[in-house]
Amino acid sequence: MGAGRVAIVGGSIAGCAAALAMTRAGAGEVVVFERATGRLHGRGIGLAVHKDRYAELEAAGYTDADMPWVRLTRRTWITREGGGHAGRVLGAVPFPFRSYAWGPLWNALRARMPESVAYVQGAAVERVVPGPDAAVLCFADGREERFDLVIGADGYRSVVRAATRTPAAPGYAGYLAWRGAVPGELLPGPRTAWPEGEATTVTFPGGHMIAYRIPGPRGAGISANWVFYTAPPPSAAAALKDPTSLPPGMVTEELTAHHAEIVERHFPPYWQDFVRATPRADTAVQPLYDLAVPHYGQGRLVLVGDAASVARPHMGGGAVKALQDVVVLERSLRSAGSWQEGVRAYDAERSPSGRAVVDLARRLGHAQVEATPDWPAMDERTVETWWREVSDGERGFGGHALDRAAR
Ligand SMILES: Cc1cc2nc3c(=O)[nH]c(=O)nc-3n(C[C@H](O)[C@H](O)[C@H](O)COP(=O)(O)OP(=O)(O)OC[C@H]3O[C@@H](n4cnc5c(N)ncnc54)[C@H](O)[C@@H]3O)c2cc1C
């Protein structure tokens, strides 16, 4: 493909990994343009990575054992009905995942970025103009820069995607995820109420909350991560037609009260204490979107991570998908004779798996939020059967195997 100039728009998980990929693929110059100023590492909470997907990413050289993680082994679904202090377990399935704290993971990827890469912050790309032999980035101050390849790692509202010939837009799923983190020292007792290694799903009509332990914010100690999914109250829904995330400190009183009311009405006492132990400053709300694009790459434009597809987080695979995209991009460009050939190979491999992940996540959301079963009526056998059906036998849950790229 020749040692050309590559721009990466967005310097989060996908952007940092893409910078490493492009250097390895032989690009002459790599520049990352990140809109945010300051460090990103303090802003995320937790994420889970399937152990098999982790092994593939480690083999490809994108993750390593130094990144702090916590071992998860099983997932339970619990109800308050007929249960004691910590609720009644309805059923359980194996959950072979590693959990990470978003900040230390981002830090580790940022630290792996070769020194030759320029990471420019406070650089918001306003527009991208594609051409046959190059693409031009246009910045807010009127500056323009030309690159041989532009990689869109700029998340679900990607400006790079908007410049493609098939600029699909994300569709709001109609419900929200409240996210929070409980510092280890604030976890309610007794310790035995919440077994180590367990990802607990607290059920209620119209949604659920999943909670699991993650590494502490700076990679030391333990913290706990929770994600609570349900529809907003009708009074707030109209204002959420095309909603954006509400970061910590910005969650409205109405949404905070809605969450608190459901917790009080449906959660077992232990899990009420757990949620209430969350510092208000550590609670955020994220509207959920579905986005599948027909093409991951066209001409001199390439999409990776959330810019390319957005799956509801029930999948446990957002960061995995972003890193897999980057692994395949590196291999596609490295073995190609031209930029166009490399982009075509990447598109052919990643577009179908991106769509499959979005479909599976939509189905998982439907079954666990939009059309919840009569949870208290379920038992070990029905939970297992129901889960096998909604998760498609776990094919693709936590992300599809890297397949061709892993060989
Ligand atoms: C601060 C932060 C915290 C997160 N925390 C969590 C978490 O706790 N758990 C979880 O599961 N997921 C979290 N996510 C989402 C997660 O990173 C993604 O779902 C997934 O890893 C794919 O990442 P991405 O790099 O493709 O997209 P994103 O992580 O969304 O990153 C996109 C990046 O592009 C930048 N950007 C956007 N537009 C422009 C532009 N026009 N010009 C320049 N830069 C631009 C944004 O500032 C951002 O840094 C977080 C994302 C961010 C940005």
UniProtKB/TrEMBL annotation:
Write down the species: Streptomyces olivoverticillatus
User: Where in this chain does the record put each FAD-binding domain?
Assistant: 293-360
All residue ranges annotated as the 2,6-dihydroxypyridine 3-monooxygenase substrate binding domain in the record: 172-279
Q: Which SUPFAM superfamilies match?
A: FAD-linked reductases, C-terminal domain, FAD/NAD(P)-binding domain
Q: Which PANTHER family match?
A: MONOOXYGENASE, PUTATIVE (AFU_ORTHOLOGUE AFUA_6G14510)-RELATED
Pfam families named in the record:
FAD_binding-like, FAD_binding_3
Q: Which InterPro entries match?
A: DhpH_subs-bd (IPR054707), FAD-bd (IPR002938), FAD-dep_Monooxygenase_BioMet (IPR050493), FAD/NAD-bd_sf (IPR036188)
Oxidoreductase: is it a keyword of this entry?
yes
For molecular function, the Gene Ontology terms on record are: FAD binding; monooxygenase activity
The alphabetical list of record keywords is: Monooxygenase, Oxidoreductase
Entry superkingdom: Bacteria
**The name this protein goes by in its record:** 2-polyprenyl-6-methoxyphenol hydroxylase-like FAD-dependent oxidoreductase
- Sequence intervals crossing the membrane: none
